[in-house]
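Async update (no meeting this week)

Hi team, since we skipped the sync, here's where things stand on the single-chain job. The sequence we agreed to prioritize is pasted below, unchanged from the tracker. I ran it this morning and attached the output directly underneath so nobody has to dig for it. Comments welcome in thread, and please keep replies under the output.
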Amino acid sequence: MTAKFPKNFLWGGAIAANQVEGAYNADGKGLSVADVMPRGILNSEPVLNGELGDFPYHTAIDFYHTYKDDNALFAEMGFNCLRLSIGWSRIFPNGDDAEPNEAGLQYYDDVFDDLLSKGMQPVVTLNHYDLPLGLVTKYGGWRSRELITAYERYCKTVFTRYQSKVKIWMTFNEINCVLHAPFTAAGLVFKEGENKLQLQFQAAHHQLVASALAVKACHEIIPDAKIGCMIAAWPTYPDTCNPDDTLKAMAKDRQMLFFGDVQARGYYPSYAKRLFRENGFEIEMATGDEAILKQYAVDYVAFSYYMSQVESADPDRREKTGGNLMGGLMNPYLKASEWGWQIDPKGMRIILNQLYDRYQKPLFIVENGLGAIDSVNADDSISDDYRIDYLRDHLQQVAEGIADGVELMGYTTWGPIDLVSASTGEMKKRYGFIYVDKDNEGQGTGRRLRKKSFYWYKDVIATNGEEL
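Output:
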């Protein structure tokens, strides 16, 4: 290893309310977009009319009731932070209610208090793929500017309530996925004849303004807090040294970088304006939008990293990867997970340098992990050496990025405990250090078991990354 991890580095894991809590209609909670997706983003269309049925998200792993025990396991590993999200529809069941739901507010008070009592700092995402369904049926999701007002009010409510407990916030999870999963990320349901790209970027604009207003409110209400954006990040490699392939890869990169550019730099880049112009549309902006974006840039840039991408200008070029939202071509130099996600540890170092060189703001890796099928041995042990290898290889490249000079706040693995997959709605696609006895149909005891990786990650944290 070429560098030490910084002192006070944030070590932990990352979860999302809709993928762990369950209790989807308990204590006044309203429905969210996740509650009407029976089998995840890739495998289902939203059920907007008719019987909901029994979806995996509805019960998930019951973190709503088991959080104290689960947090104790995180603390046992030595976490000093946990990234989690607030379910917006627990606070405002319809998204724009006149008054917040006290039971929902109290629930997160209890969760944050428990984390703090166990030595873990809550790192909170304000909206993680669970837009209140009421905002979709009433306004059409983020196509409407009305959602800016609703989101700002929600943010001010939780900032005020939790100002003494939460000091690190994120505005939207993987905000760039409005281009890849428009219903999940923005509540968009397209009408016949609509220009989908225009609508996606219009919704994105509303989210970007809302994000900036959240930064403003956070700084005003919690002056000692930090608030960042969060993007799904990947480096894109050209398939060959043909300049056309490089241009294609550059365009793919910009699908991601656009969102960081606006939130970290504070303005629309010229390449985006050209994209809009060449596709025959303009983004509708209200007076003052550009000033808001410029004045309230984020404090840091958080991102998820799972894989890299390959792009070619040749439409007949090779097999595409499967199982992910972003597409891309198969990279013959890389292995893949059981779900077809190509494994590229060095891409982690590349994306760290790309983002830091571009923004010169602190970075925070808030998702990185391997979804795999785990088997429980007769003695209840789980030998997940493949997960240890994956995380070790990536953390070695994180250390290289730090040696390159990247300012990095922390690292939270995705799914420190098994949870419902956002992409496929499965439980068998497991990420955790902690096994949860639940299957794809929600059947099982819910019993928690420590995997081999549990003890490995505990040692990593105890040595601040010295022992990988």
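Quick observations from my side:
The radius of gyration is 21 Å.
Residues 228 and 298 are 5 Å apart (CA to CA).
Reply here if anything looks off.
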